[in-house]
Amino acid sequence: MSGTSDLWEPPEIQVAVDIVILTMRASVFHVLLIERGEEPQAGTQALPGGFLNNKWEGIYDAALRELKEEADLDASGLHVEQLAAYGEPGRDPRGRVLSVAYMAIAPGLPEPSAGTDASDAAWVPVEDVLSGKVSLAFDHRQIVRDAVERARSKLERTSLALAFCGRTFTLTELQHVYEGVWGCSLDPRNFYRKVQNIPGFVEPAGSVRRMAAGRPARLFRAGGGTVLYPPMVRPVPTES
Amino acid sequence: MSGTSDLWEPPEIQVAVDIVILTMRASVFHVLLIERGEEPQAGTQALPGGFLNNKWEGIYDAALRELKEEADLDASGLHVEQLAAYGEPGRDPRGRVLSVAYMAIAPGLPEPSAGTDASDAAWVPVEDVLSGKVSLAFDHRQIVRDAVERARSKLERTSLALAFCGRTFTLTELQHVYEGVWGCSLDPRNFYRKVQNIPGFVEPAGSVRRMAAGRPARLFRAGGGTVLYPPMVRPVPTES
DNA sequence: TCAATAGTGTCTATGAGACAATATAAC
DNA sequence: GTTATATTGTCTCATAGACACTATTGA
To answer: Which residue, counting CA atoms, is nearest to the C1' of nucleotide C27?
Structure first.
């Protein structure tokens, strides 16, 4: 900081949060998008998010607030972690905005947010966003890409996949999480063996779940561990 | 954003960057720290960094500028990637400051920054920071922890380890990178085989490097690939 | 019965980890 | 020669991946 005057004051910048909410619906990997009601880019799809309410609101708190306001989701029971900051000048036409992106994982099937405050929210297949079939406002597509890559990576070494499931789940359900996020298909029988060989990952919950057809599936619950060893390895290297 | 007045303006916040510069010196994993010359916390060690110069400076650009100003390192040839944003209120006694942290990997042995602008910079063993033997200003210890965990993780599936090496390197040198970052020891003979079995990771550079004693080591260069498959797996699960 | 899904067992190729043995330098 | 480091080879065990087979439900 040499050469700066004693009177120099650091510049101040508007700070926002954006949230990538991921879930599994009918075995398909989805992200929650909002139709923007205001300019700029009114009418296009965007991630839920917004500016800090006031100068002293915590960024994590702001993320939880937006989660509630825009997606009608309660933070408890959701996995929420920070992704990165997106703050290059020019990313927002309104001016200099630095946005801190969060990734949230929602279990089960939170219905597409009924007639609530978040009625213009919709679950969109992640694939449609990555492929460009659905276009997003600002740099939100890149943010989704980063979130998906983060999720793909964490599925290997952490029990993050369980955040996509309810308190109890079947191994087939868990398999669909891995398949949906990784974008590949796995052998159910090998998956079975592999998952149960990782200490602390899942443990039997004692009961079963009846499906429309076929043998009922045993229910499992989280085994308490967060680090998977040995790790689950993706069969095909996914490009970053 | 319902219920907000049309006149409402988003709050503005001071934005800074902090850089975790990692390197390998004499087979020991080091981080670059600066002795703070100004209040608050003058005299304690801290990560190089500082506020944006002006409202329109890019955060990545600011990180590169601080890299040059405070550590006298040139960005070219350095691996620089963003880590995360640290912006909870209360983390900086000066007021509300949001800091975007970057991780930089430096190869070889950039001397501890001679009599330059960055004369109060010093390489400190990462272990001393993690263990608390050296205490850091603000939440910088947490930032270093996060950077180390990021590096440990990326060593598994990407060729990031090569960023710690020069243009050519021996496999023993590469092994020391893995050992230093992961904090474990590896069998040289198995490491040899494993590294060379990963397509696109390393390739022979044709020449050798003579050591003080023993058989000269073959030199290698980067193989061009960035994703490692099969991945290098850590022998012991390191807690986050 | 059949259709459908859950779960077990088995085989084989590959990689991990341990470690003996050899190669090539300085002295 | 000795010492030190690099590199190759070998052995054994565990895991991945392929896939036949059995189990348990609803219709």
So the answer is: B213
CATH of the domain at A24: 3.90.79.10
pLDDT per position as a tens digit, A120-177? 889 999 999 999 999 999 999 999 999 999 999 999 999 999 999 999 999 999 999 9
Q: Which residue of A has its CA nearest to B97?
A: A12
Domain that holds residue B182: 156-222
CB contact under 8 A, B55 and A240: no
Return d(Cα A98, Cα A203) in angstroms, integer.
Answer: 42
Which residues lie across from B160 on neighbouring strands? Answer: none
Residue A187 CA and nucleotide D19 C1' are separated, in Å, by: 10
* A46: CB partners within 8 A, 6+ apart: A33, A34, A35, A36, A136, A137, A138, A140
CATH code of residue B199 = 1.10.10.10
Residue appearing with tokens 């799809």: A45
- Of all residues in chain A, the one with the smallest CA distance to B66 is A1
Strand D footprint nucleotides (protein C-beta < 7 Å): 3-10, 15-20, 23-27
Burial B201-231 (b: 16+ CB within 10 A, else e): bbeebeeeeeeeeeeeeebbbbbebbebbeb
Same domain, yes or no, for A134 and A18? yes
- Contact assessment for residue B96 and residue A54, using Cβ atoms and an 8 Å cutoff: no
Inside any domain, residue A235? no
Rounded distance in angstroms from the CA atom of residue A148 to the C1' atom of nucleotide D23 = 37
Give me the number of domains chain A comprises: 2
Q: Which residues pair with A222 in a beta bridge?
A: A202
Positions of chain C reached by protein Cβ under 7 A: 3-10, 15-21, 23-27
Q: Which nucleotide is closest, CA of B186 to its C1'?
A: C17
Put simply, the answer to whether A229 touches B237 (Cβ < 8 Å) is: yes
The nucleotide minimizing the C1' distance to residue A212's CA is D26
Eight-class DSSP state of B216: P
pLDDT by position in tens, chain B (length 240) = 455 556 899 999 999 999 999 999 999 999 999 998 887 888 899 999 999 999 999 999 999 999 999 988 888 889 999 999 999 999 999 899 999 999 999 997 656 555 556 668 899 999 999 999 999 999 999 999 999 999 999 999 999 999 999 999 999 999 999 999 999 999 999 999 999 999 999 999 999 999 999 999 999 999 999 999 999 999 876 544
Q: Between β-strands A97-105 and A79-86, what pairing exists: parallel, antiparallel or unpaired?
A: antiparallel
In the sheet where B168-169 sits, what is the strand order?
A: B168-169, B217-222, B202-209
Ramachandran sector of residue B121 (left: φ over 0; alpha: ψ -120 to 50; beta: rest):
beta
